[in-house]
Prior knowledge:
The complex is a heterodimer.
Chain A lengths: L3 E4 L2 E4 L5 E7 L5 E7 L5 E9 L2 E4 L6 E3 L9 E3 L8 E8 L7 H4 L4 E3 L3 E5 L1
Parallel strand pairs in A: 2-11
Antiparallel strand pairs in A: 1-3, 3-8, 4-5, 4-9, 5-6, 7-8, 9-10, 9-11
Chain B lengths: L3 E3 L4 E4 L4 E7 L6 E7 L6 E6 L4 E3 L2 E6 L4 E6 L8 E8 L8 E3 L3 E6 L1
Parallel strand pairs in B: 2-11
Antiparallel strand pairs in B: 1-3, 3-8, 4-5, 4-9, 6-7, 7-8, 9-10, 9-11
Amino acid sequence: DGGITQSPKYLFRKEGQNVTLSCEQNLNHDAMYWYRQDPGQGLRLIYYSQIVNDFQKGDIAEGYSVSREKKESFPLTVTSAQKNPTAFYLCASSGVGVSGGASSLGTGELFFGEGSRLTVL
Amino acid sequence: RKEVEQDPGPFNVPEGATVAFNCTYSNSASQSFFWYRQDCRKEPKLLMSVYSSGNEDGRFTAQLNRASQYISLLIRDSKLSDSATYLCLVRISSGSARQLTFGSGTQLTVLP
């Protein structure tokens, strides 16, 4: 079945360590996103990518980095510069893009992975 | 003013009640609208898209009011399993990955 896979589901990190969260999709979507959600709060956009080898900062990019070397993959690194990294991280993809192919356009809704819960000890 | 606003609730309603949520948006160029459901500690899942003419899916009805710039979600005959947070998503341009904004969510609790 097509979908988005995030790993790990739970991650514990010591202060000062970088960690990388994996996000893979087989929906043939051009656009991918990373969101952060804190308890009782809404979703905040960290980074997004519309095409391979290109990505843009969202609203809270400081302390995070991403790469988009393949269409299917959009890993997020939480660096030691992120002051308060404990949160629920959600990866999403969307059928919107510049390629123009029917498989990549979709109707614009986001599809989410199951999330990765990061706790800093 | 936020781009997309939702009443955070919580809305506590008895089983069988009808409940409605609104989501207002500030950008008149917004083109696509969606309602998501998020259970506690889970990812948001698409509940339904919102079409210009309004649309219904079982007990759920979504409507768009472009003149007043809001979308609504109506839930009839509420079930205990409807308890969740409901998020609206507004997309400005179908060609842009960036121009989409979530509301902060409305929490619904259906009571027995």
